[in-house]
Design a protein that fits this description.
The complex is a heterotrimer of chains A (263), B (282) and C (354). With 282 residues, chain B is mainly alpha-helical. Chain B is built from 13 helices and no strands. The chains are: A mainly alpha (263), B mainly alpha (282), C alpha+beta (354).
């Protein structure tokens, strides 16, 4: 049983890794359409991506929208998380549940809603519309990350600061915020990625005016399978590799430094 | 001190609401209202009747799509379980370093955009892709059409959703006390009976979590079935998209969206009563 | 001693539950006072009321004649060492100690210099640049102490600060804390549930139980002259014997199992009253034969618990359980299930008033 599960596990590993890896050679392929093995390798489609405004504009739109979404989401979620984690009040259970609701509703349902609702105020196909919609979808993710961090926060530290003469405001600035910073950064990063990757709502409401990168990719895959998609996929995958391994590397360097300091 | 206490309790009552208000107002305007809009449109577009629901719940195409969606979601969930359980086990039973590397890979897959992974499957399963090439090299002269079938979209969805399953099961397996397994072995449980009577029940919460999550996401999945699936066998989200995009039939689209929403929420509500919704994405 | 910290009539009620009931306390300047009691006895609640983290339902707290009423914790100038130290993980030891000075507007160079001086005083010379997680438990404790003292607080509160340390380190820190406290002369309240810690460190001990102060006295008084049954039972080991006073003037009482018992007369009771008598186990002598000039009774030995340098002999006189502590060498004379004599003098019997 043991050995069987193990071999199956290794097979699954290949199943998970293969699709991620395959896009890398394809991005260097000379072929106009999907072809394996590639007839030859070049950097032509990388040049194409970095010079074609039809790809750069959506990329820029996505960065802009994701950044604005992150700021808006955090501005709303940080105070709310403090309220929900640190206070008890009537209706808290319902409030907790409401925070998670956007995760429970399929994005296609929200897409229909936003398409008609934003249409009525004329903000379909605008950056504003996409930002407002994405912020809703990012709220639960940012909340989950931040509330887990805040629950683990040792409140003795705040009491200690107060006893040492720091006013509640100074305590928040000098103690609470710095200690919570990693949690805040991760929470914001999750909000950013959620918006940057969000496809379904963007397909329906971003339109030509605020076309996001996922929407452009979706349309392009559906219509012609432009080889530039392989380039973007490779770049996005590299960004993920960087994002996932960077914290590991940093913590390893830090712990090594700590060990040196302690000896 | 009486005054002090009155002030204090008043503050503790008011303060959380003050902090919560901006978000509450925002969610009311940009989440609840658009959702309510869908509900309203399902009854009023194009005219205020129940005819949308009548058509959705009796029309052959719609019922077939619902059924198809359900079957696909169940298939994907079972495949994810079949794929995820062994890998989670591999991680839980390997040395910390190996486990870390596998977790890294799963995490990378998890964070890679749905679109990128969908595209990768398009490359893999294409008519000139590596899988067909492999089949040809081992002697199959006319490989079957893989892309734009139910097979390709199901396979890609399994790949895309497997990390949810793996992470949920792994987080439970990691916490299992190894002495428990050893003590079960010392009591005579071996091989399959050890697995069935000890390991499987202990990992059940992870299986439940992962399955609910995968199933629910799959029910409303839009991107992958639309790009990789057969146009003749759509899933519900794709059909809703068609109604809006192509026919501008907001009433029909909304009615279908409501059915999807109600089914999804019902599943999550059952889950919430037993385990608590916050655990699901924990 | 003139009163420096004064608590009068402090009560704390949470809904139906009364956590503190009418606590009155006077503490002199420079005194080291321990709040001792089991968990939930109200000692920590009292500490938190002094610090300003809890507000009393009624009563007043005064320091040097000034009421603390209405002052927030950060306005009270009270140093606290918390159970888990509460060191800021994102600041070095020196920055932690500098923090209260920073909050009081002291310049960085002067403040950090003063912080280093304080670290020297607590025996952490050269550790200023370390982060808390790079320090051992005992070192963290010292940083917390330095931080709570550097701003010359009017009071130092220690909330079970030694709980997390192992036994040896604990004894070392007890001595350290006493040394530093004496050197600075700061009025200190130390909260603990460990009676030996309380005995070895304090000028005076305040025993708490069920939200009330049971006794306030020096460690020796608490040990030898407990005012209540709870104090007698909580501090050290004791044989508590229910008896009826037969002659209050001479100091005689009687108990069903022990017969007539003489005690040192105190004038605190009168003939015919039901009282509790206390005999410490180490004051009882165990022998094969009765000893002249002492009260002798026969005890059936049930259990002998050997500690090496001493042993605890548990047995019964009639149906009254008795505990006797003997030095290790003496214990060889008896075995379990044997009968022997136990004896004491009038001076060994203490009458508990309540």
């Amino acid at each position: 049983m043991n050995r069987f599960l193990r071999w199956l596990g290794i097979a699954v590993l290949v199943f998970i890794a293969a699709p991620l890896v395959i896009v890398i050679p394809m991005s260097f392929s000379e072929a106009r359409s999907l072809q394996f093995p590639p007839p030859g390798y070049w950097l032509g489609y990388y040049t194409a991506y970095f010079t074609d405004p039809n790809w750069l504009r959506p990329t820029w739109n996505s960065i802009l929208i994701a950044s604005a979404t992150t700021v808006l989401t955090m501005a709303l979620v940080v105070p709310a998380t403090f309220a929900l984690v640190r206070h008890r009040f009537r209706g808290k259970g319902i409030a907790d549940l409401m925070m998670l609701m956007p995760l429970a509703v399929p994005h296609i349902v929200m897409a229909v809603g936003y398409y008609s609702y934003f249409g009525s105020f004329g903000i379909v196909h605008t950056h504003l519309g996409v930002i407002l919609a994405h912020s809703c979808l990012s709220v639960p993710i940012a909340f989950l990350v931040l509330s887990a961090n805040l629950k683990g926060f040792d409140r003795t530290l705040e009491r200690a600061a107060l006893s040492l003469g720091a006013s509640p405001t100074k305590t928040f600035i000098h103690v609470t915020l710095p200690i919570l910073r990693p949690g805040l950064i991760i929470s914001a990063l999750f909000a950013f990625v959620q918006s940057f990757d969000e496809t379904v709502v963007a397909i329906f409401i971003s339109g030509r005016g605020a076309e996001t990168l996922p929407r452009k990719m979706f349309d392009s895959i559906r219509q012609e399978a432009d080889p530039v998609i392989a380039v973007i996929s490779t770049l996005l995958f590299l960004a993920v590799i960087l994002g996932v391994t960077a914290p590991l590397l940093i913590s390893r360097i830090r712990s090594r430094r700590t060990r040196i300091a302690a000896t | 001190m009486g005054v002090n206490i009155a002030k204090l309790t008043q503050r503790t009552d008011l303060w959380p609401w003050l902090l919560l208000t901006p978000l509450a107002v925002y969610m009311a305007i940009f989440f609840v209202v658009p959702l309510a809009d869908v509900a309203i449109m399902s009854f009023t577009e194009p005219s205020p009747t129940l005819s949308n629901y009548e058509r959705v719940l009796t029309g052959g195409l719609y019922l077939r799509t619902f059924l198809n969606t359900f079957v696909t979601a169940i298939t994907v969930t079972l495949c994810c379980l079949f794929v995820g359980y062994p890998l989670a086990y591999l991680m839980a039973s390997s040395k910390p370093r190996t486990a870390m590397l596998i977790l890294l890979l799963v995490t990378m897959s998890f964070w890679t955009s749905f679109l990128v992974r969908t595209y990768a499957w398009m490359v893999l399963l294409g008519n000139n892709g590596p899988v067909v090439w492999l089949l040809q090299t081992i002697g199959m002269e006319r490989p079957p059409q893989l892309l734009f079938t139910r097979f390709s979209s199901t396979l890609a969805m399994v790949h895309i959703l497997a990390p949810y399953m793996i992470m949920n099961i792994y987080s439970v397996m990691r916490k299992i006390d190894p002495t428990l397994i050893r003590s079960a072995e010392s009591l005579g449980a071996r091989g399959f009976s050890l697995f069935r009577h000890v390991y499987l029940p202990l990992t059940a919460p992870g299986i439940a979590n992962g399955s609910v999550l995968v199933f629910v996401i799959c029910l409303g999945f839009y991107v992958t079935p639309v790009l990789l699936g057969s146009p003749r066998e759509q899933m519900i989200a794709g059909l809703i998209g068609n109604q809006i995009d192509e026919f501008l039939a907001f009433g029909m689209g909304s009615a279908m969206a409501m059915v999807l929403l109600v089914v999804t929420l019902a599943i999550l509500a059952i889950y919430h009563r037993r385990f608590g919704l916050d655990k699901l994405w924990g | 001693m003139s009163s420096y910290l004064q608590l009068s009539g402090i009560s704390k009620v949470y809904g139906q539950f009364t956590a503190l009931e009418g606590v009155d306390l006077d503490i002199g300047k420079g005194e080291f006072v321990t709040f001792l009691g089991p968990s939930g006895s109200g000692k920590t609640t009292t500490l938190m009321i002094i610090a300003g983290f809890e507000s009393a339902t009624s009563g007043t707290v005064e320091v040097a004649g000034k009421s603390l009423f209405g002052l927030a914790p950060h306005e009270r100038n009270i140093g606290i060492v918390f159970q888990n130290y509460g060191l800021f993980p994102h600041k070095t030891a020196a920055q932690n100690v500098y923090f209260p000075l920073q909050m009081r507007g002291m310049k960085k160079t002067a403040g950090l210099r003063k912080a280093e001086e304080m670290l020297d005083l607590v025996g952490l010379e050269g550790f200023g640049h370390r982060y808390p997680k790079e320090l051992s438990g005992g070192q963290q404790q010292r940083v917390a102490l330095a931080r709570a003292l550097v701003f010359e607080p009017s009071l130092l509160l220690l909330d079970e600060p030694l709980g997390a340390l192992d036994k040896n380190l604990r004894e070392q820190m007890q001595i350290e804390i006493k040394r530093i406290q004496r050197a600075l002369g700061v009025t200190t309240i130390f909260v603990t549930h460990d009676q030996s810690e309380a005995m070895s460190m304090s000028d005076r001990i305040v025993v708490f139980e069920k939200g009330r102060v049971q006794q306030v006295a020096t460690p020796l008084e608490i040990y030898h002259e407990p005012e209540t049954k709870f104090v007698a039972g909580f501090i050290g080991e004791s044989n508590l014997i229910e008896a009826k006073v037969t002659d209050a003037e001479k100091g005689e009482a009687s108990n069903a199992a022990l017969g007539a018992i003489e005690y040192a007369p105190t004038g605190k009771t009168s003939t015919g009253k039901d009282v509790t008598l206390m005999i410490r186990p180490e004051h009882i002598r165990l022998s094969r034969k009765p000893v002249d000039g002492r009260k002798n009774v026969t005890m059936k030995v049930e259990t002998i618990v050997n500690y090496g340098d001493n042993a605890l002999v548990i047995g019964k006189v009639g149906d009254l359980p008795m505990r006797v502590r003997v030095l290790g060498a003496d214990v060889v004379i008896i075995q379990e299930d044997e009968e022997c004599f136990i004896s004491w003098t009038r001076e060994n019997v203490y009458l508990i008033a309540k």
